[in-house]
Amino acid sequence: MFEELISSISNLILNIIGVLGYAGVFFLMLLESANIPVPSEIIMTFSGFLVSKGIFNFWLVVFIGALGNLVGSLINYGIAYRYGHKAEKILSKLGLMNADEFRLAENWFKRFGLFSAFIARLLPVVRTFISFPAGIFKVSLWEFSILTFAGSFLWSWVLTYLGYLAGENWNFLSPYFHQFDFAILILILVGLLWLIYHRIIKKMIR
What we know:
The protein has one domain (2-175). It is built from ten helices and no strands. The protein has helices at residues 2-20, 22-33, 40-52, 58-83, 86-94, 99-112, 116-119, 131-136, 141-166, 177-205. Helix 3 (40-52) runs antiparallel to helix 4 (58-83). The model has no long low-confidence stretch (mean pLDDT 78). Its main location: membrane.
């Protein structure tokens, strides 16, 4: 049952991207970030496969995927900014999220502050809900947008690159991504620390 559902969603995603190209990637990533259950793991790994075939440009599709995520997040931010905690009831009635998911995102935001907008984009579940507490607490739209785009760009880059490496076998990756989300986050953070050390700290020491 679950495998059939995933297969149906995958086929729908492939068809949309096949017809709309980059616009399809943007639209699907927007939906994912606006709490519509469309897995970015499938969207961006398939896009990576298309990069390997010379159909998509790597950096352009990564940028478009991140931009779609940002726009979807801004929709959620705007809803929460306008309606506050009433947004929880509205979205629950629409079946887009439940109280537990809302509390999880809110607790993340209380714990990590505005930086959670960046961290959450690299984690399962909370990444699509973190925009709501940001809107409720009326944080800076400019700062929220920058951090959200940065986190989304990293996530899109990782998925696209994995799809590019996997090539024809890209579809074998998607069922396992949620098992490795935290590992991917750790790898990204280690990479960032390495970059900061070699590009900034070493220069300061010299």
